[in-house]
Amino acid sequence: MQVDLLKDIVASVASKNAVGIVDLLHGKKNVNEFLIAKKLNLTINQTRNILYKLSDEGLVSFIRKKDSKKGGWYTYFWTLNSGKSLVKFREKLLKNIEDLKSQAATRKTKQFFFCPNCTIEYTEENALLHDYTCPECGEILQVKESSADIAGLEKEVSRLEVILHNINEEIGTISKKEEQARGRRFKAEAKKKEEERLARKKERARLKIKEEKASKKVAKKPSKKKRS
Ligand SMILES: [Zn+2]
What we know:
The chain is mainly α. It has two domains: 3-81, Winged helix-like DNA-binding domain superfamily/Winged helix DNA-binding domain (Arc Repressor Mutant, subunit A), CATH 1.10.10.10; 87-180, no CATH class. It is built from seven helices and six strands, in the order H-H-E-H-H-E-E-H-E-E-H-E-H. The protein has helices spanning 3-13, 20-25, 33-40, 44-56, 85-109, 124-129, 147-227; strands spanning 31-32, 60-67, 73-80, 112-114, 121-123, 142-143. Strands 1-3-2 form a three-stranded antiparallel sheet. Strands 5-4-6 form a three-stranded antiparallel sheet. The longest helix is centred in the last third of the chain and has 81 residues, at 147-227. The site of zinc ion (ZN) has 7 residues, from loops.
């Protein structure tokens, strides 16, 4: 998998501070989490939180071993998953993008209200229900200016769509490689079968000649006997 794409994904799932994890795990297997924490200059809990998030997305997997030196606690060893894990991640990403788009659409078409004291937000229906007064503190609700929120949502959508595009390309490359490998396997199998078929044919021919020789000998013998 592409390192840059993985970094984008890690930044999106966890945080920008976590992208160093990709360099530490890429091309390796079962990396000790204490080593990851040390290299990233994070505590073991911070490190685990990041790795659990990536694990929830199917991007990394772990094995664990009981460490007698650490009082019988488990130590986790982490591995980046193969490109196939991207397919699962893509589903989540697509859903996420749809959610953000629908939120932006709602903000564009509907009015929202908020309480300046409690900063709680209300839909128009809820605001009307409470007579445009905050049910928590009694303050009069104000109309929410949504343009900054909409811009934020749309920016996030664009960012995720770039990642989606790169994931689609990567998945395309992976399936193409798999198809080529399948093609090569199929060719090799066909070649092997053909060789086996030829070997059998050769063996049959050899046996036939042997049989013919044997039957000629058998046929000759009695004729010799008759003459003598
Ligand atoms: Zn209030």
